[in-house]
Amino acid sequence: MNSVKHMAIIMDGNGRWGLKHRKSRNLGHKEGLKTVEMVMRYCIKNQVKFLTLYAFSTENWKRPLKERNYLFNLLEIYIKEKLEKIHKEKIRIKILGEKNFSKRLNKLLDFAEKKTLKNTRMQINLALNYGSKKELVYAFNKIKKKKRISENDINNSLYTKNIPDPEILIRTGNTQRLSNFLLWQAAYTEIFFEKKLWPDFKNEDLNKIMKRFSKIKRNFGKI
Predict the structure, then answer these.
(1) H helix intervals, the chain
(2) Per annotation, catalytic residue among 2, 12, 165, 207
(3) Which of 105, 132, 147, 151 has its CB 3.0 to 4.6 Å from that of 101, i.e. a possible disulfide?
């Protein structure tokens, strides 16, 4: 049976959910936090050691300022309210991406990382201002003085250094693309595209994916 150490998720469909239910994209973002909580509990219960959530991409800066500010404020409130509980549950928080936000939010993200640094029960990677192409440029700039570059050189220079590649990548929202997310790390990841919008994604949906994953023969290029 295939085991899962690392699950990655593209949480797509918050805005569409909000427009569908209350004609407010922001409502969908707020509702999506309930699904985040559910997935966190699921991963703890099933001993998934790493959970990577695509929270804000480098392309998301193209969204309206009002929506961006709401997202950042929602993140700030969530961390302030939940950080102590997350820390007590021995969960580590790591930010993947460049912290180009407000000084207040940057300081809060730094604090969350430092406070939970030694926690080992599970690690939540928040992909914020993250783009896989930008991550690769970042890695190459770190190792550009080398004449020959190996895969290990790149692995050790990525935001995800010391984090195993994900076995599972889930994208909700009925869209079938990776959207510049973990392009290097997902080379042999099993990808599951779900029709449900992120706030509608439930525990039973995760169970179905895990069951499907357990039956996959993972050859990694072999027969």
Answers:
(1) 14-22, 25-45, 65-88, 103-115, 132-142, 151-155, 203-214
(2) 12
(3) 105
